[in-house]
């Protein structure tokens, strides 16, 4: 049985796409760019926000600092209000904790944002033993983040499973020798077929409730 379940935030615990797209589009429009539809977010799953601005709108590198600053202000005012927790996530997390599992969040969302969000959704945040997020002063790959939470909690990677919704998450888990569970209900993977290339994928989750029903049996 696994001891630690590490979970991504965007597309796994919550649907953050409405707020992300709103803040990106609002920023882009102010800079003279054409807005993109919500589904365009699937094209930048796994890349940094900076790269997302360049890929979606064709922004130039010298425009990114302004775009990032504007996005950050918008997200703190509006984006965090548009977060939608997935049905069944709170119940799954509570049951896992009751069964003695350790829980962690690994996300490339900014540390300030994720702690603000977990402060609002205290019933979600209280279930986690640790949170590893992006920091402006320290650049960590997602694989480094997985190693960090394992070291912090004193649990081996092979005794852990990472729940994520994209190929980036699957590869990060693979790189550290950790099992992976694909959230098919999230923003990245659209079908079980897409996950078959990852040998470390031990489960495909159709909804957030299956985080408990499937992972508690690994």
Gist?
Helix content is about 40%, strand content about 15%.
Please characterize this protein's 3D structure.
With 218 residues, the chain is an alpha/beta fold. Helix content is 40%, strand content 17%. The protein has two domains: 145 residues, HAD superfamily/HAD-like (Rossmann fold), CATH 3.40.50.1000; 66 residues, DNA polymerase, domain 1 (Orthogonal Bundle), CATH 1.10.150.240. The protein has a six-stranded parallel β-sheet, with helices on both faces. Strands 2-3 form a two-stranded antiparallel ribbon. β6, α8 and β7 form a beta-alpha-beta unit. α2 packs across α3.
- Determine the structural class based on helices, strands and strand pairing: alpha/beta
| Helix share bin | 40-55%
Number of domains: 2
CATH superfamily of the largest domain: HAD superfamily/HAD-like
Indicate the mean pLDDT. 94
Relative strand content: 15-25%
> Per CATH, what is the topology of the largest domain?
Rossmann fold
**Gap from first CA to last CA:** 6 Å
- Major sheet: 6 strands, parallel
CATH architecture call of the largest domain = 3-Layer(aba) Sandwich
